[in-house]
Specification:
- Keywords: FAD, Flavoprotein, Oxidoreductase.
- It comes from Endocarpon pusillum (strain Z07020 / HMAS-L-300199) (Lichen-forming fungus).
- This is DUF6314 domain-containing protein.
- Pfam families: DUF6314, FMO-like.
- Belongs to the FMO family.
- By secondary structure, this protein is an alpha/beta fold.
- It folds into 3 domains: about 250 residues, FAD/NAD(P)-binding domain; about 140 residues, 3-Layer(bba) Sandwich (FAD/NAD(P)-binding domain); about 170 residues, Calycin beta-barrel core domain (Lipocalin, Beta Barrel), CATH 2.40.128.
- Helix content is about 20%, strand content about 30%.
- It has 12 helices and 35 strands.
- Strands 26-27-28-29-30-31-32-33-34-35 form a 10-stranded antiparallel barrel. A 6-stranded mixed sheet has the order 3-2-1-7-25-24, covered by helices on one side. The protein has a 5-stranded parallel sheet with strand order 9-22-10-11-18.
- Strand 19 and strand 20 form a beta hairpin.
- Helix 1 packs across helix 8 and helix 8 packs parallel to helix 9.
């Protein structure tokens, strides 16, 4: 019997864990003997494993951009992960998990599938090179992270680089930045705004530079912290009232929320009550891809027609080209529809732009002099931003430190380009290897890797090195030399990658269940199981649970209406309320005014989001009397499925913003009601739970008319009966 192939796996993040697990479990025992080198003391890579770990690039409480259905491997369901010590496995995990929960998922995965002796924690690889002698092809030199002067040398037959792409924050050169007296911070280091205010030299503008995901996230995070400070229940910083957020981006982008409509159009018109699903579930729907065979399409090779189709899909999900949001700075011009789209994923960014709390400027920062920043727009205009106190560099990460251990000969073979932050090495076969060095593999070395693709890359390398491929492919690199032609994610075609790898590996896509067709539903990792699922009953059970969770997600029409509606409530509304009282002593009339939903940090950890609702206006009675009035409530969105909206009274003290007690819960009808017409019109309906206030009984009804992700109008109706009250009200809110 031949000796197992020794494989050095560099990194114990998602990529390294997927690689080692596949080598161990997808091949006959003794085929491979992987050793993972990890310089940290735990698995996870950039994903923190503790809720108090602030040292990682990713903040522990930041939610993922993709849902838990895609942030997962094929043979570990989230329902089996114990995230909270006081909870059962799978309990209280949101649809978009927090970063530290992903870390717990990865720890569970490692404990389940990777023997502890296969991981060397606190060990950093400092050099890999090919050997000249016969036998093992690789020489790996490492050192203990805490004892940098002690090195060790080992021989391996193969090496997998799984050290990640987001190696270190990238801060580009900007004229005058070295003399700037305010705050300069990378978006990955942005945590609590209050700790930075004292260093802003009493200036009022915060400028975020960057047009990709982190730019939108940073701008929205800052605007949210300012809003939360302004509308908190307790004391707040006086500086928050004066601060403004400016988002400088070189290109237009789609500002997409995490939940989008599955059916934004009905009978050729905007659907007033669409069904919602996580964005990645919609994008990953196999039925959206034409043709019998689905194959990878790199963004760099997008023909203008393909780009138009993708932009048209985004426009249908958003309901417009974003021209109606605020000052129009989010508008996607017609000329951009022929190029691969750029997007950010944010719950609040678009609404902060609508309200003016985030001001988007299309252009490039040219320099900073004193506290004035110069921005050059695409049409040659120069804009001066005065009174700048903070610059947030949302300029991404450099991958080069993750390749520092490569020898000069390897770098030359990979056509290494130090000036290229986008794809610095040339990799074939969907980012896994180079034909000149077939025993060197890469897993997860690209922008925006999905867990399912990491698994497929690892399986491909194992099949290649065990000579079990029917045919060795030669897929060309996705590397793009012309910076103007680069898309946001060169390997962003998740469905195409999953399908292409499945074809190469000779594995079939599984249906979600025997009742579903193979082409039905999203391409979640559990539908592309490895050999482990076929031979390991425990892994097969995990695969089944993951598919069942996906079926529950897409089966219930009202599943994600609450978070989608809650998000769209943010901001300013025109309010008209009709009041009709049976008792003469209680006034009837029409109340007109303005209402606002101000986002703020939840005042209870059990909730995912919270708005302070305020209204001000004037009541005109039939008798000609006019009375001013105001009121406040707190709206909350529960953290976990099934997500629900609750409405709370505010303490009656003058000016109080503190939550008092529950008013009612908003309970959406199980099915959409687009065809139902009455005084409210068509849209999603909800009932407020019955409420007894002292001796008065409140029955509440809600109505929401949507246009894609936006609420065009919504309303609340109350019927109130008690010893001294007998009236009904119907309030309508419009933008």
């Amino acid at each position: 019997m031949s000796e197992p192939k020794r494989v050095a796996v560099i990194g114990a993040g998602p990529s390294g864990l997927a690689a080692a697990k596949s080598l161990i479990h997808d091949h006959p025992p003794g085929t491979f003997a992987p050793i993972i080198y990890e310089k940290l003391s735990h698995v996870g890579g950039i994903w923190p494993v503790r809720s108090d770990d602030q040292a990682n690039i990713v903040p522990p409480d930041m939610p993922t951009n993709a849902s838990k259905h895609l942030v997962s491997f094929s043979d570990l369901a989230w329902d089996s992960v114990k995230v909270h010590q006081s909870k059962q496995p799978g309990q209280d995990i949101a649809t978009f998990p927090k970063a530290h929960e992903v870390g717990k998922y990865l720890q569970t995965y490692a404990d389940k599938y990777i023997p502890s002796e296969c991981i060397r924690f606190g060990t950093e690889v400092i050099s890999i090179s090919e050997t000249d002698a016969s036998g093992p092809e690789w020489n790996v030199i490492s050192r203990a992270s805490t004892k940098s002067n002690i090195t060790a040398e080992e021989k391996f037959t193969h090496v997998i680089v799984a050290s990640g792409f987001f190696a270190a924050p990238e801060i580009p050169q900007l004229h005058g930045l070295d003399k700037f007296q305010g705050v300069v911070i990378h978006s990955s280091q942005l945590r609590d705004l209050d700790t930075l205010l004292s260093r802003m030299a009493n200036k009022t503008k915060i400028v975020v530079i960057g047009g990709s995901m982190s730019g939108g996230e940073a701008a929205a995070t800052l605007a949210f912290q300012i809003s939360s400070d302004r509308h908190a229940a307790g004391t707040h910083s006086t500086n928050a009232e004066r601060l403004g957020v400016y988002h400088v981006t070189p290109r237009p982008f789609w500002s997409v929320p995490p939940y989008v409509p599955l059916n934004p159009i009905a009978d050729g018109a905007p659907n007033p009550c669409p069904i919602f699903a996580p964005l990645d579930v919609v994008f990953g729907d196999l039925s959206r891809r034409p043709g019998d065979q689905i194959r990878f399409a790199p963004s760099a090779t997008f023909a203008s027609e393909a780009a138009k189709m993708f932009n048209a899909l985004l426009q249908s999900l958003m309901g417009s080209n974003q021209s109606g949001w605020g000052d129009g700075s989010l508008t996607i011009p017609n000329s951009a529809f022929e190029k691969p789209p750029w997007l950010i994923i944010s719950t609040t960014h678009a609404e902060f732009v609508r309200s003016g709390d985030v001001k988007v400027i299309l252009g490039r920062a040219a320099g900073i002099e004193g506290h004035t920043m110069m921005v050059h727009t695409g049409d040659g205009e120069a804009i001066e931003l005065a009174d700048v106190g903070m610059i947030v560099m949302a300029t991404g990460f450099t991958p080069h430190p993750a390749l520092s251990f490569l020898s000069p000969a390897i770098r030359q073979a990979l056509e290494y380009d130090l000036s290229n932050q986008y794809d610095p090495i040339k990799l074939f076969n969907f980012g896994t290897m180079h034909p000149l060095i077939p025993s060197l593999g890469f897993v997860g070395f690209y922008r925006g890797p999905y867990f399912g693709v990491l698994e497929q890359q690892a399986r491909f390398l194992g099949a290649l090195w065990s000579n079990s491929l029917r045919e060795v492919p030669n897929e060309p690199p996705a590397r793009v030399e012309d910076i103007k032609q680069r898309g946001q994610f060169p390997m962003g075609d998740y469905v195409g990658l999953m399908e292409s790898f499945a074809a190469i590996l000779g594995s079939e896509r599984w249906p979600l269940s025997p009742e579903h067709s193979s082409r039905e539903g999203p391409a979640i990792p559990a539908r592309y199981p490895g050999k482990t699922v076929r031979t390991n009953p425990s892994a097969a059970d995990e695969q089944k649970k993951a598919c069942e969770a996906m079926i529950r997600t897409i089966a219930r029409q009202s599943m994600f209406v609450a978070p989608a509606v809650f998000r769209a409530l943010q901001g300013r509304w025109k309010l008209t309320r009709e009041i009709r009282s049976v008792i003469p002593t209680y006034p009837s009339g029409i109340f007109r005014g303005e209402a606002n939903m101000y986002p703020r940090k939840p005042t209870d950890d059990g909730y995912a989001a919270e708005f302070l609702y305020t209204e001000n206006g004037e009541l005109a009675t039939p008798e000609g009397l006019r009375m001013t009035g105001s009121r406040s409530y707190v709206y909350r969105l529960s953290e976990f499925e099934p997500q629900a909206i609750t409405v709370w009274f505010v303490k009656p003290e003058s000016g109080s913003k503190e939550v008092d007690y529950l008013f009612h819960q908003v309970q959406f009808h199980e099915e959409a009601s687009g065809q139902h017409q009455d005084a409210w019109g068509s849209g999603w309906r909800a009932k407020g739970s019955h409420h007894l206030c002292v001796e008065d009984h409140y029955d509440t009804e809600y109505w929401f008319r949507l246009h894609a992700i936006e609420i065009k109008e919504w309303g609340i109706g109350y019927t109130v009966k008690g010893p001294n009250k007998d009236y009904w009200t119907r309030a309508t809110y419009a933008r």
